[in-house]
Design goal:
Shape: elongated
Strand content: under 5%
Largest sheet: none
Number of helices: 8
Radius of gyration: 17 Å
Number of strands: 0
Order of helices and strands: HHHHHHHH
Length: 149
């Protein structure tokens, strides 16, 4: 597909890289000292406790609450890995699915916050589009290495 300025594959690479930059910004803007000493997960505890769906409260209590420091590291470094993977186009389909899952978790947890909903829905939509458009065909290490042909 040829479009103005770039090919279709290159436009999907632009979307992929933009999504990667968005994930990198999610990682960069965290106050790491506060986040890793309980601030991030402590904030999420308050959200989960008041959640309207019992299965979300129960899942949070089972998975996150018993290990807040581990979960803080997992969330922060998952965002970093997603950002770098998408920017450089390395293991792109895995990064897209991982990001989609993380966005859906954020979406469900923050179901009452419309500002967060918009961000997570847009990121999820871009992930789906880039995944089904095989958005690692241009400007990616996956393409250079012959991965996911």
């Amino acid at each position: 597909m040829q479009t103005m300025w770039l090919s279709g594959a290159e436009w999907f690479a632009v979307l992929r890289i933009g999504l990667g930059l968005w994930w990198l910004e999610s990682w960069r803007h965290k106050d790491k000292k506060t986040w890793f000493t309980g601030g991030g997960i402590g904030w999420a505890v308050g959200i989960a406790e008041k959640h309207r769906w019992q299965f979300v409260r129960a899942g949070f209590d089972l998975t996150v609450r018993p290990r807040p420091q581990l979960m803080a590291y997992i969330v922060a470094y998952a965002e970093l890995a997603l950002g770098l993977g998408l920017i450089f186009g390395l293991l792109t389909p895995i990064a897209l699915v991982g990001g989609l899952i993380l966005n859906l978790i954020y979406f469900v947890l923050m179901i009452h916050d419309w500002a967060e909903q918009g961000q997570n829905l847009m990121m999820a939509l871009i992930s789906v589009v880039v995944l089904f458009a095989v958005g690692w065909q241009a400007w990616s290490l996956d393409d250079a290495l012959g991965l996911f042909q």
